[in-house]
Write a structure and sequence with these properties.
Phosphorylase Kinase, domain 1; 13 helices; Transferase(Phosphotransferase), domain 1; alpha+beta; 6 domains; 6-stranded antiparallel beta sheet
């Protein structure tokens, strides 16, 4: 479908992705000149009710969300039998590609990426949407570092209890949760489990569970524990590892209960506030039963009737003749032996009393309600001592820590200290409107509250970089771990009229006003030499109010005969398939595409291609094979 125009508006330029039910193209919106991503349902599924339903569900889910960490929906429609969605175009690569390139990411970078994924999921969950397919392939990393969550194709409303055909195995097997593996409905904590797997892969460079078949991997999600992160990434902080593994707990109730909660824990891990992080609540592992216990607690084989391991026994029935002298010695010896036996029984009895009867192993109290824990301690002969502290997420009256640890042996009557949650401490939010973001962070940090900047907005009344509004508002009751969302002034400036300017002159004009040229410059061919290399259109339009430092996207005229050019020789990789080649030029004022083409497997590995640009001069050209950077060199265009 490349070069097809959908709905008389979207010109499909190149295929950039293929999924199970759709093909994704980079397209140009001919009304605005902007690059967009167009997802088109595969033709073979146009009559399949399930795939059409999933496609419509993605449109419905995307339409409910507008967030800076989510690939936003721009349009949806049909062109003949072709169903399509138009999304914002993200120039960059997937997180999976980034992990493959880097091997593993630094713990700090991995945590920051995870926080942005969680920010997107918090927005989705608040709108009643469960993603159900979080994986690195669905996380897009923009060239400028922004993180975008994509592909809500199998998302489901959180209040929906119906599972359609195939839903129980939807999502990629390496990343889905135990409840998805067992065919149950996914919820908020299922998405968080998948986020934990993604964080594990970023930290270690590998997925926690792998196998020869999807079933083998699914069984590990249900029953196996992941290998310790420290084995693969010894430099990864224990606090970040703790958050990762808590998100990957098998039972949903032991995971974080919201994306906001997990993000707050990651921030505390990054800031070193480990004492304020919540402990993991896990079930005590079951011990294997011991059958047929014998003396000393050792298992024995059951007896076999009719046989014995002892040899034949012979009894001597002849009586010994005992003299009176010998009889006296025997009586004395018997008395001494009796005394020794009695003493041994006394010492042994005391030892049994002290080591068995008068001792007890410490039970597992963590997660118990405090009154139940007290009764349990008293039942085994221990004296419970209660210490109460506030906790941001664990409810009032729940045991969160204990000392000594589980299975420690204590004498009956000894004390066990139980730390019990008093629930979150209540406090009022101060006003941070009018503050800089750094001053606001310094104000909220002692309260355990996190600042999240939603967007920078145009404002002629508030100085740039100062907070305009906050949510929740001043005076709202909050607790440690909450997030305050703010809008920040970006100041205001007006876009100048650039039509007719040369490209370099337009860039200088924008720089003088504190604006910048967008990286995606597009071109319109013309035969009028007077228009060559001058601005044809601009977005936003002239006199539009924008934030300081904003970007302006330009469309520039060009006369093909006046373009500067140079020929270069490629070094194609050995492959059995088609190789897609893209070459960009950079002269210090942004990267532009100078060549695109495809080469079959039987083509020369060193073909010569021509690069073209508006102006002559020295450039750095960067070569991409199948959208992956390969190498770069210098070239002079004339």
């Amino acid at each position: 479908m490349s070069e097809k125009i959908l709905a008389d508006r979207y010109r499909l330029v190149e295929q950039i992705g293929v999924g199970g039910m759709a093909i994704v193209y980079r397209a140009i919106d001919q009304r605005t000149g902007h690059n967009v991503a167009v997802k088109v349902l595969r033709p073979e599924f146009n009559q399949d009710a399930e795939f059409v339903s999933r496609f419509q569900r993605e449109a419905e889910a995307a339409s409910k969300m507008t967030h800076h960490n989510i690939v936003n929906l721009l349009d949806v429609g049909m062109d003949g039998e072709n169903r399509y969605l138009v999304m914002e175009y993200v120039q960059g690569k997937t997180l999976k590609e980034l992990i493959k390139e880097k091997g593993r990411l630094s713990p700090q970078v991995a945590a920051q990426i995870t926080i942005r994924i969680l920010s997107a999921l918090q927005h989705a969950h608040q709108n009643g949407i469960i993603h159900r397919d979080i994986k690195p392939q669905n996380i897009l990393v923009h060239a400028d570092g922004h993180i975008k969550v994509a592909d809500f194709g199998i998302a489901r409303m959180a209040n929906s209890s119906t599972l359609t055909r195939g839903d129980s195995v939807m999502g990629s097997v390496h990343y889905f949760s135990p409840e998805q593996a067992s065919g149950q409905a996914a919820d908020v904590t299922s998405d968080l489990y998948s986020v934990g797997v993604v964080l594990y892969e970023m930290l270690t460079g590998r997925v926690p569970f792998d196998g020869d078949s999807p079933v083998a991997v699914a069984m590990q999600h249900l029953h196996a524990r992941p290998v310790n992160i420290e084995n693969f990434a010894p430099d990864s902080p224990a606090a970040i590892n703790h958050v990762c593994l808590m998100a990957m707990e098998k039972k949903p109730q032991y995971r974080y209960q919201s994306a906001r909660e997990m993000a707050a824990e990651l921030r505390m891990a990054l800031e070193g506030r480990i004492d304020k992080m919540q402990p993991r609540l896990v079930e005590k592992p079951m011990m294997a039963p011991v059958q047929n216990p014998g003396p000393g607690g050792m298992p024995v084989k059951p007896a076999v009737q009719g046989k014995t391991e002892l040899g034949p026994v012979h009894y001597n029935t002849a009586r010994r003749r005992v003299t009176k002298k010998n009889q006296g010695w025997w009586i004395l010896l018997s008395l001494l032996m009796t005394a020794a036996v009695c003493y041994g029984l006394y010492v042994g009895g005391m030892a049994i009393y002290e080591n068995v009867v008068n001792t007890t192993p410490v039970p597992d109290f963590v997660g118990m309600e405090v009154t139940v824990a007290q009764r349990t301690a008293q039942r085994v002969g221990l004296n419970p001592e209660i210490v109460e502290i506030n906790h941001p997420t664990i409810s009032d009256g729940t045991v969160i820590l204990q000392a000594p640890e589980v299975d420690t042996t204590l004498r009956k009557g000894d004390s066990v200290v139980l730390t019990v949650s008093k629930g979150p401490s209540s406090q009022q939010l101060p006003s941070i409107v009018g503050m800089s973001t750094q001053n606001a962070i310094n104000t909220l940090q002692p309260m355990g509250v996190t600042l999240m900047v939603l967007e920078r907005v145009v404002s002629s009344e508030v100085q740039a970089d100062l907070i305009i509004s906050q949510e929740p508002a001043e005076g709202t009751q909050c607790k440690a771990g909450d997030i305050v969302q703010v809008k920040v002034s970006g100041g205001m400036t007006y876009v100048p009229e650039l039509q007719g300017y040369s490209l370099s002159a337009a860039q200088e004009r924008l720089a003088s006003l504190g604006l910048s040229l967008g990286s995606n410059v597009s071109y319109v061919d013309t035969t009028d030499a007077a228009l060559h290399n001058t601005v044809a259109t601009q977005t936003p339009a002239a006199e539009t109010a924008v934030i300081q430092g904003g970007q302006v996207t330009l469309t520039v005229y060009r006369v093909p005969e006046l373009l500067s050019s140079a020929k270069v020789i490629l070094d194609l990789p050995q492959t059995d398939g088609l190789t897609s080649v893209r070459i960009t030029l950079n002269a210090g004022n942004g990267e532009i595409t100078a060549y695109q083409g495809e080469f079959p497997a039987n083509a020369s590995r060193h073909p010569e291609v021509e690069l073209k640009a508006q102006e002559s001069g020295d450039y750095t050209y960067r070569v991409y094979f199948n959208d992956k950077f390969a190498y770069q060199h210098q070239v002079t265009l004339k």
